[in-house]
Design a protein that fits this description.
The complex is a heterodimer of chains A (about 250) and B (about 220).
Chain A: H1 8-53, H2 71-78, E1 79-86, E2 89-92, H3 101-107, E3 116-124, E4 127-137, E5 142-149, E6 155-162, H4 176-179, E7 188-189, E8 192-193, E9 197-199, E10 214-216, H5 222-246
Chain B: H1 6-13, H2 29-34, H3 39-62, H4 72-94, H5 96-110, H6 113-121, H7 128-158, E1 160-161, E2 164-165, H8 190-207
Antiparallel strand pairs in B: 1-2
Helix pairs in contact in B: 1-7, 3-4, 3-5, 3-6, 3-7, 4-5, 4-6, 7-8
The chains are: A alpha+beta (about 250), B mainly alpha (about 220).
Chain lengths: ~250, ~220
């Protein structure tokens, strides 16, 4: 005898009902939680920007951000100005850090569209720092970061994060041992832009040579490292025309 | 185990050894290879799978009499995907830091063959209570292997355990590094995960020859 659940009509009704229930449940949950999730992401951006500037609660080994309670206040205190550079035009915008870099990347492909570049100006111990957001591709998914440069365009601090790099390998780009290597690295050779290469086998594990435009790569994470190199070179280069006029 | 009958206790203990989902049934290999370069990642993944498998098994078991057999695999897939998405959304809203640590694992959980395997082989034919125990047992068996592989890969590959340098500092040349020991970077790559897993399977089968299949 055919079971009730084997009938075609039952199967179709079951599938329809299940899809409607599951679909509306997930849609409801996603909409309900969206404001909370967006707020978390906004605070995270502020934490990341401050981290690059060296404002964090790091202990000896691990990465500790400013707590979400204090981050808004500290962000207002240390980030004195946010600007958007579009060609020769520079406008001040207090929400420049919320600009969607992915959208800007995509729009830049249209002819005639001049890309908008957000730049955050931080002030720490009376000195000015320029913080540049970056976005690139790792092995599996997006990688991004923020780099803080001092007035001579030497790296003051850097922050990387990723969406889905391999745990234990590429995922380690957001660890101290890797990010700290970038501190003090130069990106200019005289006045030519060199960027920083994540290099294998440069035999400088303690990264004592700060003017070789190289930091030590992570073993087993070649493509993630190459992605970072490409990201740093491509995104920082776009800011060079603006940054180099500042010192004149 | 006083709380459980002998039969129920077997549901938990069997997958830990003689019916291990990874080493005997050879399921869930992809995630076992991908994320075991660090012990911490292995532990996190084991806990995540434990949660999804136990809960999913109960849900499928509750629905076992109304699921149409023709589309049961799709129904199972929807259940696991829904559970994982709900957990992911809730974590993102209320435990953002934790959700960032887990982000990579979420996709891997949905594709984990053990989960579909247990839904199909056990939950569809058993009561929710038994299905729950079966889920715990299989996830624990999976987690056990992950932790063993993660332990050796992190120790031999990076010289650390849970991020702590247990063998000394490779750059300052202290601890065992003072005697010329070097970390084996090859351990961090996926092929060595497979070889480590192979060694575990070999050890297990040579201790208990009943596990060797006839050909």
């Amino acid at each position: 005898m055919e079971k009730r659940t084997d009938k075609n009509s039952y199967t179709i009704i079951f599938a329809t009902v299940m899809v409607i229930i599951v679909g509306s449940m997930l849609a409801f949950l996603a909409t309900y939680l969206k404001p909370q999730i967006d707020e978390n992401k906004r605070l995270e951006k502020q934490q990341n920007i401050l981290y690059a500037l060296g404002i964090n609660d790091n202990d000896e080994k691990s990465v500790v951000f400013i707590s979400t309670k204090d981050v808004a206040e500290k962000f207002d205190k240390y980030i004195v100005k946010q600007i958007i550079i579009q060609g020769d035009k520079v406008t001040e915008d207090d929400n420049a850090y919320l600009l969607d870099l992915k959208k800007e990347h995509a729009q830049a492909k249209d002819k005639g569209h001049q890309r908008r570049l957000p730049l955050f100006i931080g002030e720490k111990d009376g000195e000015k720092f320029y913080i540049i957001p970056m976005l690139g591709k790792g092995l599996w998914d997006a990688v991004w970061g923020y780099v803080a440069l001092d007035k001579n365009l030497v790296v003051e601090g850097i922050f990387f994060d990723h969406k889905g790099e391999t745990p234990g390998l590429g995922a380690n780009i957001n660890q101290r041992f890797f990010m700290d290597d970038f501190k003090g690295e130069h990106i200019l050779d005289g006045t030519t832009f060199k960027g920083i290469t994540v290099a294998k086998g440069n035999a400088d594990p303690k990264n004592e040579r700060k003017e070789d435009f190289k930091v030590d790569a992570i073993a087993g994470a070649t493509i993630t490292g190459d992605g970072l190199t490409a990201m740093i070179k491509k995104d920082l280069r776009m800011y060079m025309p603006y940054l180099q006029t500042l010192n004149k | 185990m006083g709380l459980l009958s002998k039969k129920d206790a077997k549901l938990i203990t069997d997958p830990l050894a003689d019916n291990n989902p990874v080493t005997i049934q050879v399921l869930g290999i992809c995630s076992a290879l991908a994320i075991t370069a660090e012990l911490e990642a292995s532990i996190v993944m084991a806990i995540a799978v434990l949660f999804v498998l136990a809960l999913g098994n109960v849900v499928i078991s509750l629905m076992r009499n109304i699921i149409p057999s023709k589309i049961r695999i799709i129904v199972q897939l929807i259940v696991v995907a829904t559970l994982v998405i709900i957990v992911d959304l809730v974590l993102k809203a209320f435990a953002y830091e934790l959700s960032k640590t887990l982000s990579v694992f979420v996709g891997l959980i949905i594709t984990n063959c053990i989960i579909m395997g247990r839904f199909e082989a056990f939950a569809l034919a058993n009561t929710p209570g038994k299905a729950f125990l079966d889920g715990i047992g299989n996830a624990a068996g999976y987690g056990l292997i992950l932790v063993i592989v993660g332990f050796f890969r992190e120790l031999l590959g990076s010289g650390t355990l849970l991020g702590m340098q247990v063998l000394g500092d490779p750059i300052e040349k202290t601890g065992v590094y003072a005697f010329g020991y070097e970390n084996n970077g090859f351990m961090l790559l996926a092929p060595m995960a497979l070889i480590t897993l192979g060694i575990i399977i070999w050890v297990q089968r040579s201790r208990n020859e009943a596990l060797i299949e006839d050909h």
